[in-house]
Amino acid sequence: PPAMLRDEDTEAEFQRFLRRVDDVTNLLQGLSSPDSAVREKAIAETEKRLQEQGASREEEESRTTLNRTLINTSGPVKAEAVDADGFLAALEKDAKERAQRRRRNEQLANALKEQGNEAFRKGDFALAIHSYSQGLDKLRDKQELYTNRAQAYLKLHEYEKAISDCEWALKCNKNCLKAYFLMGKAHLALQHFPECRQCYEKMLQIDPQKENLFKDCVNEASLEEKRVRDEERAEREAQAGNVAASSIQELLQRISSPGQDILYYTGGIRLLAEAVNSCTEQTFFRTNNGFSILRNETVRGAFCAESKGPAEVELCVSLLLLWQAACAGNEENQRVLLAQAGVSAQLAELLCSGTPQIQRETLALISLYSEHKGGRRLLLRQDLSRWLQILMAFVKSTDARADSAMNILSDLIGEERFQTQCGAMLSTDVLPLFTQLLVCARQVNQAALARAVGVLGSLCADVGLRAQLAQSRECWQACLQLLEGCPDASSPGYQQCVFAVLGLMMNLLLESNGTIQDFAVPISGRCLALFSHQDGRIVTRAIGVLSRVLPASPSAVEEVVKGGVVKKMLKFLKAGGQLTCSYAIKTLSICTKSSRRAQEELLKWDKRLQVLLKLLEAGDELVVGNAAFCLSQCLLLPGAASALLGSSVVQLLLRQAGGDAHRASVQHNSAIALGRLCVAEPRHIHQLRKLNGLAILNSSMKYMQSS
Fold first, then answer.
1. Total structural domains in the chain?
2. What mean pLDDT is predicted for residues 422-446?
3. Residue 596: inside a domain
4. Where do the TPR repeat units fall (predicted)?
């Protein structure tokens, strides 16, 4: 609800006027009542009021509302001369006169409103206010004049007057949306944010359809409030910054003064790191040559020393902390730091220093760059060819350094320039370290190792780097050695490593080379052993690796068939998820393609081939195509086609052979299976004829001949 009007006398006068209007309205209703008792009572009350009034006087028309009239008499009326009919006639005449005067005043008020509107459109807000005020002199209860004048006041930044007019408008019409809207604007300009929101909320209560307008208004208010708060905070920070700037300047002068010992400079650098803790102070630090601190020979000598004693280590750590404070979230400062002579090259040396404190703070500084694109761009201007090897070595650390190093690697590995730089040293430096880490997986930070494996897996997106890795016998041997050490009771960290290595192997098996052929049998054997693992994710990836390695070696196919792979795949097809089924049916299709024993075992463990028939209805075209291929291979066995009599096999194959799948292998394999089915067991032709599928069968014969 609006606040109380500021002019209390005007408010009281307005309320008295409204009460008089209500009294007269009640008398008129009583005089026209069909109830004679009510009518006589109203006449008596009217006579009493007239006698008390004595002589009539003209009321200002602006104090009335339409159809609410006061009795206007032109002289003293004697009570005994008034009868009921004459009194009603006088009242009616008076009401008509008042209505006429109101219409004239309303016409004048409307004309003045239009004059005000025209002045408003021309930007003459003072003239608009004058016209609206004249209109209100004619008709004080016209809501539009109040809201229009309030709008003009807003244009002249007279916000208090605008609020007062809006309050008057709401007394004329308590549901006036425009009044609440303009009042909200005025409160917003005065930074009365709670009152502003109350006005906008009232708008929504009156008309829920205005929700979008409400949201826009509230959003504007929130933004303005935030701007005001930010300015206030900036002012406070500026005041604090003046003090900090003075302190920073004094400390920079202290550090630049020559001839002091390391401890003196270390203390100054520490204090400086504590002083630079805002964007303003970062800028002041940069513009006052704070990054030229290495020009001090003592500081530079300690920072770049190959062998650092406790004093040099302390100074180096302090300097790294200062740079972190100066560069956090400030890309320009990050650029200036790397532009300092020798800094970028020295970062790699600090990472290799062997001093945990220095390594930890160096990693923290580099992380400020790697976590956003602009910082990575700055880093990649440097020579980072050694960084993959250096950062991967932190896998041996058992503290937070390992995670920090892997975070940086994860940030950088997606950058093409970094991948290119890594390729130069992949086979000579990175692979030996990587294979060593895999072999020693139980002695290193296993969570970090799993992430390092994932980083190398990301490198496989580059075809050249993937080919290098896939040809490395050492890499395959290390992967197998890690998988060999994976009993079911291994630690969660080790299982993460196994999962990551299987993913890397899947990526490498996109290649085809002699090394993969040589390792196909041991890889397949290791995958078979993992099928009993308790972690379903590991089992799924093991099936995926098997499905990719088997095409490289007939010997591997023979070994896994002997190892019972067909029965295991059927089990996974019955109970596995979509990805597991995709890998499992692909494995079966490879095995049944070259191994009669695999075909026989499939028919043995699934006599009516129900698993394959169910897969023909799958939504994944790759699964459907491989299922149709397996079925066509099994139909080469005696009795397989007869076992399918009475099933829905003909209908399923017809649907796929004559369908519009995107993969041609779906139609191809389904047509071949349909042809072999009818050749091996002619009784299926009767079902085919019922389904009008002879044309598809004829086309499938061509596929059979080509197969």
1. 3
2. 83
3. no
4. 177-210
Q: Choose the weakest-confidence range: 120-134, 229-243, 569-583, 661-675.
A: 229-243
Q: Which of 457, 483, 511 is the last residue of a domain?
A: 511
Residues 700/671, Cβ–Cβ less than 8 Å: yes
pLDDT in tens, 317-372: 999 999 999 999 999 999 999 988 888 889 989 999 889 999 999 999 999 999 99
Q: How far apart are the first and last CA of the chain?
A: 86
pLDDT higher at 59 or 349:
349
516 neighbors 486 (Cβ within 8 angstroms)? no
Residues 483, 462 share a domain = yes
Tokens of 312: 């040099």
Distance, CA of 480 to CA of 394 (rounded, Å): 23
593, pLDDT greater than 90: yes
Euclidean distance between CA atoms 567 and 602, whole angstroms = 7
Element (H, E) at 108: helix 84-121
What is the DSSP track for 424-436?
HHIIIIIHHHHHH
Q: Rounded distance, CA 299 to CA 342, Å?
A: 13
Does residue 558 belong to any structural domain of this protein? no
Q: What does the pLDDT average to over 453-471? A: 88
pLDDT computed for residue 75 by the predictor: 45
CA angle, 22 as apex, 21 and 23 as ends, to 5°?
Answer: 90
246 and 207, same domain (yes or no): no
CA-to-CA distance for 544 and 534, rounded, in angstroms? 17
- By the 8 A CB rule, do 387 and 348 touch? yes
What token pair was written down for 523? 């890889």
Buried b (16+ CB within 10 A) or exposed e, 410-422: ebbbebeebbebb
**What is the spatial distance between Cα 102 and Cα 99, in angstroms, rounded to a whole number?**
5
Domain that holds residue 137: 104-225
Are the beta carbons of 620 and 582 closer than 8 angstroms?
Answer: yes
Residue 375 belongs to a domain with what CATH number? 1.25.10.10
Asked whether the beta carbons of 438 and 482 are under 8 A apart, the reply is: yes
Give residue 368's pLDDT. 94
Residues 6+ apart with CB under 8 A from 305: 312
- Whether the full predicted model's pTM is greater than 0.70, yes or no, is no
Write down the residue that tokens 């960290």 correspond to. 493
The 10s digit of each residue's pLDDT in 532-565 is 888 899 999 999 999 999 999 999 999 999 999 9
Give yes or no: residues 291 and 416 share one domain.
Answer: no
Q: Which two tokens stand for residue 169?
A: 């408008």
Tokens describing residue 303: 């920072």
User: Do 153 and 261 sit in the same domain of this protein?
Assistant: no
Q: How confident is the model at residue 2 (pLDDT cuts 50, 70, 90)?
A: very low
Angle at 647 between CA 643 and CA 652, to 5 degrees: 120
623 within a domain of the structure (yes/no): no
Any alpha helices (H) in 328-385, and if so which ranges?
Answer: 331-339, 343-351, 356-370, 373-379
442-472 burial: b if 16+ Cβ within 10 Å, else e:
eebbbbbbbbbbbbbbbbbebeebbebbbbb
**DSSP string for 636-661:** TSTTTTGGGTTSSHHHHHHHHHTS--
* Concatenated DSSP letters of 506-531: HHHTTS--HHHHHHHHHHHHHHHHHT
**Residue at 583 is within a domain:** no
Average pLDDT rounded to a whole number, residues 42-61: 58
The secondary structure of 274-303 as a DSSP string is HH--SHHHHHHHHHTTGGGGGGSHHHHHHH
Helix (H) or strand (E) holding 575: helix 565-575
DSSP string, 186-237: HHHHTT-HHHHHHHHHHHHHH-GGGHHHHHHHHHHHHHHHHHHHHHHHHHHH
Quick one: 294 and 369 in the same domain?
yes
Chain segment 197-254, per-residue pLDDT in tens: 999 999 989 999 888 888 888 888 888 888 888 888 777 666 655 556 778 888 888 8
Please give the structure tokens belonging to residue 37.
């008792």
